[in-house]
Amino acid sequence: MSKLGKVFLITVLFITLNLPAGPWSSNAYAAQTQSAVPSGAAMLVDGILVRPLGFAATLIGGVVFVVTLPFSLLGGNVDDAGQALVGDPARMTFKRPLGEFD
Question: Looking at the structure, do residues 15 and 42 belong to the same domain, yes or no?
Protein backbone atom coordinates (compact mmCIF):
# COMPACT_ATOMS: atom_id res chain seq x y z
CA MET A 1 0.00 0.00 0.00
CA SER A 2 1.35 3.38 -0.91
CA LYS A 3 1.98 6.12 1.59
CA LEU A 4 -0.97 8.13 0.24
CA GLY A 5 -3.23 5.09 0.64
CA LYS A 6 -2.13 4.61 4.26
CA VAL A 7 -2.76 8.28 5.04
CA PHE A 8 -6.20 8.06 3.41
CA LEU A 9 -7.09 4.88 5.35
CA ILE A 10 -5.95 6.37 8.67
CA THR A 11 -7.93 9.55 7.98
CA VAL A 12 -11.10 7.62 7.11
CA LEU A 13 -10.74 5.44 10.22
CA PHE A 14 -10.14 8.47 12.43
CA ILE A 15 -13.19 10.29 11.10
CA THR A 16 -15.38 7.19 11.32
CA LEU A 17 -14.40 6.41 14.90
CA ASN A 18 -14.92 10.00 16.03
CA LEU A 19 -18.36 10.53 14.52
CA PRO A 20 -21.27 10.77 16.94
CA ALA A 21 -22.87 7.40 17.51
CA GLY A 22 -26.23 8.63 16.23
CA PRO A 23 -29.67 8.76 17.80
CA TRP A 24 -29.08 5.59 19.80
CA SER A 25 -26.54 7.43 21.96
CA SER A 26 -28.89 10.27 22.91
CA ASN A 27 -30.34 10.84 26.35
CA ALA A 28 -33.82 10.11 25.00
CA TYR A 29 -32.79 6.56 24.12
CA ALA A 30 -31.16 6.08 27.53
CA ALA A 31 -34.31 7.30 29.29
CA GLN A 32 -36.45 5.02 27.12
CA THR A 33 -34.39 1.93 27.85
CA GLN A 34 -34.21 2.68 31.59
CA SER A 35 -37.98 2.87 31.93
CA ALA A 36 -38.49 -0.46 30.15
CA VAL A 37 -39.46 -3.49 32.18
CA PRO A 38 -36.55 -5.94 32.58
CA SER A 39 -36.79 -9.18 30.68
CA GLY A 40 -37.66 -12.47 32.31
CA ALA A 41 -34.14 -13.74 31.68
CA ALA A 42 -32.66 -10.72 33.48
CA MET A 43 -34.99 -11.32 36.42
CA LEU A 44 -34.12 -15.02 36.49
CA VAL A 45 -30.36 -14.37 36.48
CA ASP A 46 -30.80 -11.67 39.09
CA GLY A 47 -32.90 -13.83 41.40
CA ILE A 48 -30.89 -17.03 41.13
CA LEU A 49 -27.33 -15.78 40.74
CA VAL A 50 -26.83 -12.08 41.48
CA ARG A 51 -28.95 -11.71 44.64
CA PRO A 52 -27.32 -14.65 46.49
CA LEU A 53 -23.89 -13.32 45.50
CA GLY A 54 -24.92 -9.87 46.73
CA PHE A 55 -26.08 -11.36 50.03
CA ALA A 56 -22.74 -13.18 50.39
CA ALA A 57 -20.90 -9.94 49.56
CA THR A 58 -22.91 -8.15 52.26
CA LEU A 59 -22.01 -10.78 54.86
CA ILE A 60 -18.34 -10.90 53.88
CA GLY A 61 -18.22 -7.09 53.76
CA GLY A 62 -19.65 -6.98 57.28
CA VAL A 63 -16.95 -9.31 58.55
CA VAL A 64 -14.21 -7.33 56.79
CA PHE A 65 -15.68 -4.10 58.15
CA VAL A 66 -15.56 -5.39 61.73
CA VAL A 67 -12.03 -6.73 61.31
CA THR A 68 -10.75 -3.48 59.82
CA LEU A 69 -12.75 -1.21 62.13
CA PRO A 70 -9.75 -0.27 64.33
CA PHE A 71 -7.85 0.91 61.27
CA SER A 72 -10.89 2.80 59.96
CA LEU A 73 -11.24 4.52 63.34
CA LEU A 74 -7.59 5.55 63.24
CA GLY A 75 -7.95 6.77 59.68
CA GLY A 76 -11.21 8.57 60.34
CA ASN A 77 -13.10 6.90 57.51
CA VAL A 78 -15.55 4.60 59.30
CA ASP A 79 -18.54 5.94 57.35
CA ASP A 80 -16.82 5.44 53.99
CA ALA A 81 -15.68 1.94 54.90
CA GLY A 82 -19.13 0.96 56.14
CA GLN A 83 -20.77 2.33 53.03
CA ALA A 84 -18.38 0.56 50.66
CA LEU A 85 -18.19 -2.77 52.48
CA VAL A 86 -21.75 -3.17 53.78
CA GLY A 87 -24.06 -0.41 52.52
CA ASP A 88 -23.48 -0.71 48.78
CA PRO A 89 -23.76 -4.53 48.61
CA ALA A 90 -26.86 -4.45 50.86
CA ARG A 91 -28.52 -1.79 48.71
CA MET A 92 -27.71 -3.75 45.56
CA THR A 93 -29.14 -6.92 47.11
CA PHE A 94 -32.24 -5.71 48.94
CA LYS A 95 -33.38 -2.36 47.51
CA ARG A 96 -32.80 -2.68 43.75
CA PRO A 97 -35.79 -3.83 41.65
CA LEU A 98 -35.50 -7.39 40.37
CA GLY A 99 -33.75 -7.54 37.00
CA GLU A 100 -32.49 -3.94 36.97
CA PHE A 101 -28.69 -3.81 36.99
CA ASP A 102 -28.13 -0.03 36.77
Answer: no
What's residue 44's pLDDT? 92
Structural domain containing residue 27: 1-36
Percent share of the chain, pLDDT over 70:
69
Same domain, yes or no, for 27 and 42? no
Residues 48 and 79 occupy one common structural domain: yes
Do 56 and 81 lie in a common domain? yes
- Please write the tens of the pLDDT for every residue from 10-30: 665 556 556 555 544 455 555
Give the pLDDT score at 58: 96
d(CA 92, CA 70): 26
Give every CB contact of residue 100 below 8 A, 6+ residues apart in sequence: 38, 42, 46
Determine the Cα–Cα distance for residues 71 and 65; give it in Å rounded to an integer: 10
Residue 100: count other Cβ atoms within 10 Å of its Cβ: 13
